[in-house]
Write a structure and sequence with these properties.
Helix content is 34%, strand content 24%. The protein folds into two domains: 123 residues, Gcn5-related N-acetyltransferase (GNAT) (Aminopeptidase, 3-Layer(aba) Sandwich); 168 residues, Gcn5-related N-acetyltransferase (GNAT) (Aminopeptidase, 3-Layer(aba) Sandwich), CATH 3.40.630.30. The N terminus is likely disordered. The longest helix is centred in the middle third of the chain and has 17 residues. Helix 2 packs antiparallel against helix 7 and helix 5 packs across helix 8. Strands 1-8-9-10-11-12-7-13-6-5-4-3-2 form a 13-stranded mixed sheet. The protein is of the alpha+beta class and 380 residues long.
């Protein structure tokens, strides 16, 4: 028996944009003496060779882009740098991008790259990856960096590089290449029911990157992060992303009788749409607002010719989030982060977590938002 096709009716779609202000002029990257003349160091915000490599390399993602690196620079002050095996003044054929994170609270380090779910080295082979990592580690040996971290998808550093596994996650993607009906049939029946429920509830939908939609998104984000016992990311971060990506970034909001009840933020890059942030009003979950947003995103991405919907990473212990992504047809795979020198990420003791939870649960929104402004620049 054929399944009935789902169709969204009574959905009002409005597009809003905001004028993109010019980003502050980037500073030239000051080179430091290198121990090996094989390692080329460039500033990806100034040197167009990096953008050219990102545009043509099949492993590139939104997290390699000049736009992501610019937003990190503006919002948090992180300095990006690319290391390559190429000769000076020649086109780049390989490279690894990092950001310098200097914090009095959490130490100084190189991260590839902050607040990304993954960031593959743009190289041709695991041998080239190992060579680059070994040279990077050698040049940093006598510098004031506590460690270097990479977040690759395809390659694992060999033991000779000095990198060891520090964290492990589950990463999910949805294949958008099959026909839409096939994609729909892969959804869990519970998600299909929620899509139908959103129609019966008469929910409406808007997308864009205007200040008004950002305000709706951020209010829901503050409530969601409080439920998760965490402060929200600073508003400056989201404004920096909008200024960098323009209409490649979309804030999608579901409304019930003009009241925002769910929102997600996505970024398009090449053939992939990346789901980066999501939030909702827990009192309205049963109405299917989140399901409406995901379904509309998938349909639009399919129409626009995108081939992958990147659902991002999940903590292995967060089985609820893993199940949610699998309900949307997400195919999971393990992803590891690697550090040199290797020291697994420290887990806070239970009493510290309880204190943090009590703080988040008890303070007014304005203090919770202020704590996020002070906190996030230290944890990239």
């Amino acid at each position: 028996m054929k399944r009935p096709k789902l169709q969204i009716h009574n959905t009002v779609v409005r597009f809003e944009t905001v004028d993109v202000e010019c980003l502050p002029e980037t500073r030239s990257f000051s080179r430091e003496p290198l121990e090996s003349n094989r390692l080329l160091t460039i500033d990806p915000l100034q040197d167009e060779r990096w953008s050219d490599l990102v545009a043509r390399h099949p492993a590139s993602s939104v997290f390699h882009s000049k736009e992501w690196l610019s937003a990190l620079r503006v919002a948090y002050g992180y300095e990006p740098v690319v290391f390559s095996l190429n000769e000076p003044h020649t086109p780049l054929t390989s490279g690894i991008v990092f950001c310098k994170v200097n914090s009095w609270l959490t130490g100084s380090r190189l991260v590839s790259v902050p607040f990304s779910d993954h960031c593959d080295p743009l190289v041709a082979s695991s041998a080239e990856f190992d060579e680059l990592l070994s040279l990077v580690a050698r040049t940093l040996r006598d510098r004031t960096k506590d460690y270097c971290e990479v977040r690759p998808l395809r390659f694992q550093p060999s033991s000779c590089t000095g990198f060891g596994e520090s964290d492990r996650y589950v990463w999910h993607t949805v294949d958008l290449r099959p026909p839409l009906d096939t994609i729909l049939r892969r959804f869990h029946t519970s998600e299909q029911r929620k899509i139908r429920r959103s129609v019966r509830e008469g929910l409406t939908y808007e997308e864009g990157n205007s200040e008004r939609l950002l305000g709706h998104f951020y209010k829901l984000l503050v409530d969601t992060r409080r439920r998760q016992h965490l402060p929200p990311q600073p508003m400056k971060w989201f404004r920096s992303l909008i200024a960098s990506f323009g209409m490649s970034l979309k804030i999608r909001v579901a409304f019930k009788d003009s009241e925002p009840i769910a929102s997600i933020l996505t970024i398009s890059h090449h053939e992939t749409v990346t789901y980066k942030y999501g939030c909702s009003d827990a009192r309205m979950h049963a109405m299917g607002g989140v399901a409406m947003l995901f379904w509309n995103t998938i349909r639009q991405a399919k129409t626009d010719g995108h081939e992958t919907f990147d659902l991002g990473r999940s903590e292995i212990s967060n089985q609820g989030l893993v199940n949610f992504k699998e309900h949307w047809g997400g195919m999971g795979s393990n992803i590891s982060y690697w550090r040199n020198p290797n020291h697994p990420r420290a887990h806070e003791s239970s009493w510290k977590r309880k204190i943090a939870q009590r703080f988040v649960d008890s303070v007014p929104d304005r203090f919770l938002i202020a704590s996020g402004r002070a906190f996030y620049k230290h944890i990239g």
